[in-house]
Amino acid sequence: MSFSGKVKEELARVCPRARHCRLAELAAITGMCGEWREEGCLSFLVHSENIAVVRKCFTLIEKTFNIGNEIAVQTAVRRNMHKDSSVYYLCASGECLRAVRHADVQAVCCKRAYLRGAFLSSGSMSDPGKSYHFEIVCNTLEKAQYLQQLMQDFGLEARIVRRKKNIIVYLKEGDRIVDALNVMDAPVALMELENVRILKDMRNNVNRKVNCETANINKTVSAAVKQRDDIEYIRDTVGLSGLPDGLRDVALTRLAYPDASLKELGELLENPVGKSGVNHRLRKLSEMADKLRDSKEVQYDQETSDN
């Protein structure tokens, strides 16, 4: 079962104790995937491909109005080119249902129930192991804006986007989706999502550290190669014997230990010094090598012009 399916199964098992909360959740279900009829007697028809939605609707009506005998549930098969799918229908009738149509969704608990019913009816979530995405599909902009306002009441900065004929209310941030699951009363799914987030954060931290260490190693290796090249150039042009003792000591030690760090080089010197001292001497050698290269280029240019 997908993560989204697990969330809906958990939400389908939540049944509010308060009548006003059950009315709010029923109002969301009928508003998102139902239609009202007034042909002699007030009734509504709820249809969904998810049996959990119809089962939850049946439970809420039965507990709220005690009219189980006036509820009919049917199953139909929807055929298409790829595979057949089942569609479930629930029809309930009775003047008492007018309380659902005019449910007052003002209390915090009722807003939570409404969002739970809306997601159960037409919501979905991506697998958190791949990405963070939470959405509820609405068929009108009015419904989408109403849901957005309810979510903002809980600090959930939901956004709205149009997708073909539908309006989508969605969240993209992992922490906001965690908050949404908490609002809808889905603690099991919330914990599973948090565990995934922790693992992903750990992997990302490890990757960042590895990348950082790799970059530092590459930088150190490149610097060591440049230092060795400069020293070899000095040795092959003017020699190392004329260098001051400190510079000659560093130069010979770097040639003998090309992979040593600055700290290790300092400890290997005849007269040990710290990293800053080693770095200062290597920089002097680099400047000397650059001056020798520049002077050779100038000499070459002069010889070329004379010829």
Residue runs with pLDDT of under 50 for 5 or more positions: none
Helix and strand run: HHEEHEEHHEEHEEHHHHH
Largest beta sheet: strand ordering: 1-2-4-3
How is the quaternary structure best described? single chain
Kindly name the structural category. Answer: alpha+beta
The counted number of beta strands is 8
Strand portion, in percent? 15-25%
How helical, in percent, are the residues? 55-70%
So how many helices?
11
| Gyration radius, rounded | 36 Å
**How does the overall form come out from the CA principal axes?**
rod-shaped
What value does the average pLDDT take? 88
* Sheet having the most strands: 4 strands, antiparallel
N-C termini distance: 84 Å
Describe the protein in words.
There is one protein chain. The chain is of the alpha+beta class and 307 residues long. The chain contains 11 helices and 8 strands. It has helices spanning 3-12, 19-33, 51-65, 98-101, 108-122, 141-152, 174-184, 187-237, 245-256, 262-268, 275-306, and strands at residues 34-39, 41-48, 71-78, 85-93, 123-125, 134-138, 159-163, 166-171. The strands form 2 sheets. Strands 1-2-4-3 form a 4-stranded antiparallel β-sheet. The chain has a 4-stranded antiparallel β-sheet with strand order 5-6-8-7. Strand 7 (159-163) and strand 8 form a beta hairpin. Helix 7 (174-184) runs antiparallel to helix 8. The longest helix is centred in the last third of the chain and has 51 residues, at 187-237. The chain starts with a helix and ends with a helix. The mean pLDDT is 88.
